[in-house]
Amino acid sequence: MTEQEKRFFAALTADRAESADTLEKPSMRGIKNSVVEKYSDQAHFIYELLQNADDAGATSARFILEPDRLIFAHNGTRHFSVTDPTREDEDSAAGKLGDINSITSIANSNKTEASIGKFGVGFKAVFQYTSTPHIYDPNVHFRIDRFIVPTFIEEDFKGRRADETLFVFPFDHAERGQKEAYSDVAEKLRSLSYPLLFLSSLRDIDFEFEDVIGLYGKNIPETRRIGDSTAEFITLTQNSGEDIVDQHLWLFTREDEAGRKYSVGFFLDKDKKLLPKKEPAFCFFPTKENTGLNFLIHAPFLLTDSREGIRAGVAHNNHMVALLAKLASDSLLYLRDIGTEKSARLIDDSILSIIPTDVDSFTDIDDKRHISFMPFFTEIKNAFTTEAILPTRDGYCAKDIAEIVQGMYYEGYDFIHFCSLSIPVMIVEVVTRIGYAIKRIKEGHTVKESLPFSLNREKHPKLSTMLFISHSAATAVNAGKIYFTKNPMAINYPQWLAFAKYSYKQLRWVIIEKPEARDAFVLGKINEELAAVYASVNTTFDEFSKEYVLVIE
């Protein structure tokens, strides 16, 4: 630090001590609690730290969780600064407020509306777990006492790399024990939701605790410019101490009038086909705002105080939704063209599981209580009506969403497709019949008697029931696939026909044939026993009458 910065730091310490005296008055204690306990999501401050690292231009960040503290470090090129505390109003308005001034303030930073910010109120969430954060920067080392008072530290942290800014958060909160803090932070580190996806600089995050070494990574192997949009093929890597998992998506990004980025993302499965993915709206990190969409959206929304919801009835947020909806509809065209270029269709019959098709699932656009995502339905419907997006055997065509299903049935479900869908049905049939034959042979029947070619219940009494159960299970699986993917194109006609066939036979057996067979069996037994009684009576009569002459008058 320069001599001037040291004077500013000393003046800032005195100023914040005076403010801390005020905050510690009984009448003011609620202010601190309202700031610290903003988040219902425990350990949300992890996201705030990553935001600040990205603002500092960091490409790499790491967490080390120990039983009594959390260590966070990043390689950002922007380092901590301090400015004259007597000019904070002017510096904040001009975007020149020092970082130490900002981090020791309450709601006073260089953060502009709808931007990610630097050391805004969100950083105060660390005080859910610690009372004295320590900060070790190449320029200065200090800790924060009494919530907002910076105190100079002479010695550097042992193990801090030369280019790193390092934070230490001792678990010394008066009301939250070390075990609880450790557990909360460990769980959060394992389950961060796409922490790198919408950050500009950060590419990897490492974390370690106990015997767990994990990472989050982002790789962008392909980037292309399409008109005023940027298309990125992104691979997100996650390892929470177990297997490494890669997720792939196409992310399409534009900038608004003020240069703020907003994005729409479509995930891909292992076969590089579009994969429906229900996620909340993102504002750099996940909110708790349900969109009702099967793809990702991100924008610099104006959020509620807790950063968990999107403020409704705000012109800026409505404008963001409108821009995102237009980008989403245009992205379908981009996906169509990218797939055509790569000779691998991205827009196919699974598109119905991706796009919104139920207008009633969205709140009204004029509802002031909740942010509405209705524009997505409107824009995508318009795109399908006016653009050639609907897949056919020979290419693409334009139709209303209401005609998509009908068109796909007419254009896509031909006899060849029907035959291909019949393959799993035949496998179920063959496996069940072979299993039945093996069972019969083990019971002592001959091979000829065990061959399951006939459904005659006298020869093979259990075969029809086994086939009914097998096809019922297979049909249930197909029904589940349709339900969870929301894709009616996933229906397997041959399977449902087989299910209908064996269901009819089973119902006929249970309702009609089985009672008849049971009645016939019971009647046969009664007749057999009655015949035996008659025979016994006749025998007895003959025995007693053989020495006598019976005269009947």
Explain what the structure shows.
The protein is of the alpha+beta class. The protein has three domains: 207 residues, Heat Shock Protein 90; 145 residues, no CATH class; 111 residues, no CATH class. The chain is 41% helix and 18% strand. The protein contains 13 helices and 17 strands. Strands 1, 2, 3, 4, 5, 6, 7, 8, 9, 10, 11, 12 and 15 form a 13-stranded mixed beta sheet that branches. A two-stranded antiparallel sheet has the order 13-14. It has a two-stranded antiparallel sheet with strand order 16-17. A hairpin with a 3-residue loop joins strand 4 and strand 5. The protein is elongated. About 2% of the residues have low confidence.
State the gist of this model:
By secondary structure, the protein is α+β, with helices and mostly antiparallel strands. The protein is built from 13 helices and 17 strands. A hairpin with a 2-residue loop joins β7 and β8.
